[in-house]
Design goal:
The protein is of the alpha/beta class and about 300 residues long. It has a single domain (about 5-295), classed as sialyltransferase cstii, chain A. Helix content is about 40%, strand content about 15%. The chain is built from nine helices and eight strands. It has helices spanning about 5-30, 35-40, 90, 110-125, 140-145, 180-190, 215, 225-240, 245-265, and strands at about 55, 75-80, 95, 130-135, 150-160, 175, 195-200, 270-275. The termini are far apart. The model is unreliable at about 295-300 (pLDDT under 50).
């Protein structure tokens, strides 16, 4: 853990760096008509669901313990490759987020990538009204692959720190978060949701490749991976020298960002709660998932 001196030093470094990033963004905004146009379109999301509630659905294994039929007529955010799950159609997502850089390099000439491209493309039929939220700076290949899908873009470039105010201004430069779930929370705050419930957000993915998991298979994702997918993931991790130390550091940063976002939500009068009974998040208040649907006066879309 950092001492006080290290914290002050990092705060100063991040402050100076964010000023530099702000300057680069404003210059680009000034000279790029396309950026101005797209961020103006993103501004259409501001307070579009003011006062409502939403559910952000992660891909963690605890998702198996929820009756997702409850969410069919709710406002729902899904992330990453949730469309691999049979539950995706049930969820009827309003918004879907991709922020992993690997996704935006999908190549239709590569067999494994082609399967993912077809899967994403199929959502146009299964969920035609869903809007994808993706980073502006990585959009080029994605919108070429999926020209008929609905997109909103975020210019995520700043460092997320406790000193950073109003991170939810999506029509301007925003922080780059460690995890897609935090992007979803930030987007929901911007859209005016006053109640945000997380389900299947377990933050236990760092345990997926531990030896013990090979015995009980309790961590990872709610959907099943094929043997080929597992082998490919392990091969990629080995090539990139990604080990347990790397995973633990990134998950530590994820939890740090999530705590900051919880504080931001609270300061903005937004109730952010964990509706899952399982997982590694130990600081968000929990609520019983089924109890959220027992009152006929609940707000739905």
């Amino acid at each position: 853990m950092f001492g006080r001196r290290e914290e002050v030093t990092m705060s100063v470094i991040n402050l100076v760096d964010n000023y530099r990033r702000d300057l680069k963004y404003y210059l680009k905004f000034l000279f790029s008509k396309d950026l101005r146009k797209e961020l103006n379109r993103t501004k259409e999301l501001q307070n579009v669901h003011k006062g409502k509630r939403c559910f952000i659905v992660g891909n963690g294994p605890s998702l198996k313990h929820h009756n997702l039929n409850h969410l069919t007529n709710e406002f729902v955010f899904t992330v990453n490759y949730m469309m691999k799950s049979n539950d995706f159609k049930t969820l009827n997502s309003n918004y879907h987020l991709f922020f992993d850089p690997i996704v935006f390099g999908l190549d239709p000439k590569v067999e494994e990538d082609k399967e993912k491209i077809d899967m994403i493309d199929s959502t146009l039929k299964s969920n035609p009204d869903m809007t994808y939220i993706i980073p502006y700076r990585r959009r080029a290949n994605f919108i070429k692959l999926f020209p008929k899908h609905k997109f909103k873009f975020i210019y995520n470039y700043k460092t997320f720190t406790p000193q950073l105010k109003n991170p939810s201004q999506l029509h301007r430069i925003t922080p780059g978060f460690q995890n897609v779930i935090i992007y979803a929370i930030n987007s929901a705050i911007y859209m005016g949701f006053k109640e945000i419930y997380l389900i299947g957000v377990d933050m236990t993915g760092f345990l997926e490749h531990f030896e013990y998991n090979k015995v009980n298979n309790q961590w990872g994702h709610s959907y099943t991976k094929t043997e080929e997918e597992i082998a490919l993931i392990l091969e990629t991790l080995k090539k990139k020298n990604i080990d347990n130390e790397f995973y633990l550091k990134t998950y530590g940063k994820t939890l740090e960002h999530l705590k900051l976002m919880f504080s931001n939500a609270t300061e903005n009068g937004v109730k952010l709660m964990n509706a899952s009974n399982h997982g590694a998040i130990d600081f968000l208040p929990r609520v019983e998932y089924d109890a959220l649907f027992s009152d006929n006066s609940q707000i739905t879309n």
